[in-house]
């Protein structure tokens, strides 16, 4: 390995890329070059499944580097439009390509690697006509599913959530067996969104439903629009997640519901459990969101937490009261030393003073 490649690999690992190396080397999932996706969209193409893609579509971790504290990895959360193909007309492809092109414009990223399930995981090549994964491909597919929690929840990946359907998409026109529910009513989309809301900062979980087709964006503009207040929720405790999941729809709920329950719980324990800083600034959160976050802190799930940033939100007295109670809870966030908020009500001030926390 040359000096340049060695430096790229070092940077990749320094920003957390090592968390994905074993699964990438196994072939359980592959990362796709964002520029290839953009090129495909410009040609008016339609996505092909992973096994049908040429080598030029994929990108290796060794070729990725970002000069600041992030990973050049984008993870897509996108509802499938039919049961056998996520985007048979290429409309989703064009929307995603627009976002990727924006992220590459006037940005610190030189290249972007994309996880998109249809392109990244082994698929049934032609299920309508009996064309199914081989035994080896099926084993890799299952291994890839088991690793999705880390991809979506990792602090430094950027998750793009396509929360709205393309113009003209109608549920009644979809083939029999298709999941026609809205984004947040689908079990997988709900799970992916929840995992992406655990420990990422305000600009790494983006709602592409806020992106306008008639507007051009660069890196900063896209992040500003798609991370506007109210676009994501606070973390849910695994028990809360499981309760809400009961109302969501799956194409195969028997297998998928226990799987996503396990994935979320694992992601929650891993990411919240090791987080030293949680930055939830400028997310439009109010009292209900603050109270939900207080429940997570009270549970003792964040033993390593040192800094909590909540400035730029709309939290009122009730929310601050809940946070104060969480801070006073024995054993909750024992290492917490800094809380950043816009207001300093007496109850919160007293709780922080008692703990020696800078407010």
Automatic annotation (TrEMBL):
It comes from the Eukaryota. SUPFAM superfamilies: RNI-like. InterPro entries: LRR_dom_sf (IPR032675). This is BRCT domain-containing protein. The lineage of its organism: Eukaryota, Haptista, Haptophyta, Prymnesiophyceae, Isochrysidales.
């Amino acid at each position: 390995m040359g000096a340049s490649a060695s430096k790229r690999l070092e940077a990749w690992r320094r920003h957390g890329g090592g968390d994905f190396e074993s699964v990438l080397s196994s072939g359980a999932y592959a990362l796709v070059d964002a520029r290839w996706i953009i090129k495909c969209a410009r040609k008016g193409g339609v996505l092909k499944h992973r096994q049908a893609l040429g080598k030029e579509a994929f990108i290796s971790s060794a070729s990725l580097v970002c000069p600041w504290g992030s990973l050049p990895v984008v993870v897509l959360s996108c509802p499938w439009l039919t049961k056998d193909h996520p985007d048979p007309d290429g409309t989703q492809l064009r929307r995603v390509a627009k976002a990727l092109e924006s992220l590459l414009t006037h940005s610190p990223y030189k290249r972007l690697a994309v996880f998109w399930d249809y392109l990244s995981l082994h698929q049934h090549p032609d299920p309508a006509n009996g064309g199914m994964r081989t035994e080896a491909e099926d084993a890799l597919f299952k291994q890839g599913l088991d690793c999705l929690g880390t991809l979506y929840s990792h602090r430094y990946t950027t998750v793009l959530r396509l929360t709205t359907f393309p113009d003209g998409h109608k549920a009644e026109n979809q083939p029999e067996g298709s999941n026609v529910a809205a984004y947040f009513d689908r079990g997988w989309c709900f799970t992916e969104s929840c995992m992406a809301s655990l420990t990422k900062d305000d600009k790494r979980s983006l709602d592409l439903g806020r992106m306008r087709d008639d507007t051009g964006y660069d890196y900063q503009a896209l992040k500003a629009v798609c991370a506007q207040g109210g676009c994501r929720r606070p973390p849910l405790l695994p028990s809360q997640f499981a309760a809400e999941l009961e109302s969501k729809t799956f194409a195969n709920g028997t297998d998928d519901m226990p799987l996503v329950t396990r994935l979320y719980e694992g992601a929650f324990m891993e990411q919240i459990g090791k987080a030293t800083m949680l930055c939830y600034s400028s997310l439009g959160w109010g009292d209900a969101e603050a109270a939900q976050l207080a429940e997570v802190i009270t549970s003792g799930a964040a033993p390593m937490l040192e800094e909590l940033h909540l400035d730029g939100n709309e939290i009122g007295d009730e929310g601050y009261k809940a946070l104060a109670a969480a801070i006073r809870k024995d054993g909750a966030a024992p290492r917490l030393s800094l809380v950043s908020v816009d207001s300093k009500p007496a109850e919160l001030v007293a709780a922080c003073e008692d703990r020696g926390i800078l407010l």
